[in-house]
From TrEMBL:
This is ABC transporter substrate-binding protein. InterPro entries: MlaC/ttg2D (IPR008869), Tgt2/MlaC_sf (IPR042245). The lineage of its organism: Bacteria, Candidatus Lloydiibacteriota. PANTHER family: INTERMEMBRANE PHOSPHOLIPID TRANSPORT SYSTEM BINDING PROTEIN MLAC. It holds the Pfam family MlaC.
Amino acid sequence: MGASPPVAEAVKDVQPDALVRSITEEVMRLTVEATVKSTGELKDHKKLIRDVQLIVEPHFDFARMTRLALGVHWRKATVKQQEELTAEFRTLLLNTYSGIFIILRAHTPEFKPFRMTPKDTDVTVRLELKKKAQVIKFGVSMEKTSAGWKVYNIVVDGVSLVSTYRETFSAKVKESGIDGLIAELSKKNQEFLK
């Protein structure tokens, strides 16, 4: 189910820094609301994950992220394998992203100054999540597409999510092939649901 044309146009015209701010603030609000104040525990962990995923999913370019994470192995995969890899990696990324915000729910986001020119089609939005002396730095890499700005990588404290997965995926493909990687991703995604 896609966004209605006026909503789709509205999202398409949002600047990348405003989009990251909006998504981050909405996700942080949800995680705070889902936390029992007296204990700090989550009321309904699975519901929160679903809610967070609904917010972030439309703004990620999972196909590009999968291609980047697979590197040279992407071209070796059949179309069916590429589709399966994209679907499984999408689920893994959504679970990971949701999990990060759940863990960091007591942190406060601070958005760094952002500049771009009208011609820019690839940008990085920077923010920090802070709690007392702890600071976690994020760089959200985005590309301008026909559907608006889409996230294609996230860097956490200098570590690229896509590059980290590229190393892991390459080792797994060398060990057990593309189908072995698909099976591994599927297994991780099933374990996350438990």
